Amino acid sequence: PCPLCCPQLEGLCSFLQLSTCPEHLLVCFCSWLLALTPDLSYTSAAILAEHLFLRRVLSLTQPPSRHLMAALASFCSKYSQPFCRVLVAAVLQEPGEGAEQTKLVCELVEECLEPNCVRLVLSQVLEVPLSEKLLPVVQAVLGRQEVLPPDLFDLLVLTLCRQAPAFATSLNYAKLVTAVLTMYQSQVS
């Protein structure tokens, strides 16, 4: 994108108040975005993902509305890579429990994201300190039964081994290790 495009898009998003527009309008807006040709650039899609969804998702205290879920699924169907880089990364790094955000990421992993983005989510999880909050996300990734590249699989196993003492009493951790051992038994030595 040209150097002027990003500031102009940022300004337009602010002017249109996209971060606070009614959720039912998000669905219409995302449908319109998907119909654009040519496709949005990575940078433009990332800016839009931030303005359309970031504040809404980080402030969730209950399950997202069907309008918000429809808009998220719609946007992810075409722009999942920038979406993951902006939104999923922010959710993973958010301190605290973030139960609704974690559930949302799990649902997106299970139902919306392409295989390469599922692997991206796993790599993002493994970049931050593993916590009880993140274990369901890893479980959702494994539930997709995607083939993991050897380096990502090795990092997963190494992380699980290093973190074992911290999760000595965690049922979620035990389920996760069991899933890894079951699904990837030929690769675990």
UniProtKB/TrEMBL annotation:
Cellular component GO terms held in the UniProt record: Fanconi anaemia nuclear complex
Superkingdom assignment: Eukaryota
Upper classification of the organism: Eukaryota, Metazoa, Chordata, Craniata, Vertebrata
Segments traversing the membrane: none
Ranges of residues in domain Fanconi Anaemia group E protein C-terminal: 7-188
Alphabetized Pfam families for the sequence: FA_FANCE
Alphabetical GO biological process terms: interstrand cross-link repair
Protein name per the record: FANCE protein
Coiled coil regions in record: none
Name of the gene this protein is made from: Fance
Record Gene3D superfamilies: 1.25.40.480
Species of the source: Oceanites oceanicus (Wilson's storm petrel)
